[in-house]
Write a structure and sequence with these properties.
single chain, alpha+beta, hypothetical protein PF0899 fold, three-stranded mixed sheet, three-stranded antiparallel sheet, 2 helices, elongated
């Protein structure tokens, strides 16, 4: 389950930022993730609750913003919706679409106290 590793990395990042910036608690953590990254939101929240105990992030709300898959078809020369990696273009059925969105995993906002 890579959600545990992701949750652990989030907590490490928050702890480091807390030491650098001098905050003691986090109220909200906003994470943007792509549907093609295979992150299960419920599993990530469960893992985050477990690994954040005793840290600045304990009790914080984990807000998850999902990003749809999108790509660029070099044949059609337009953006297309993508539901899986290495997909053929849903319009022309030819080229492998170059992904432009849907794989990201980014901490975008911290509300601290």
């Amino acid at each position: 389950m890579h959600e545990m590793a992701i949750a652990g990395s989030l907590v490490e990042l928050i702890e480091e930022e807390g030491r650098i910036r001098g905050f003691s608690r986090v109220r909200t953590i906003r994470v943007r993730f792509g549907v093609l990254g295979h992150v299960e939101p419920e599993a990530l929240m469960f893992c985050f609750d477990a690994v954040s105990r005793g840290t600045r992030a304990e009790g914080a709300q984990l807000a998850l913003d999902m990003v749809a898959g999108e790509g660029w078809c070099p044949e059609c020369r337009q953006a297309v919706a993508v539901e899986e990696r290495y997909a053929l273009c849903p319009l022309c059925g030819l080229s492998h679409v170059q992904l432009t969105a849907g794989e990201e995993l980014r901490l975008t906002e911290l509300e601290v106290m």
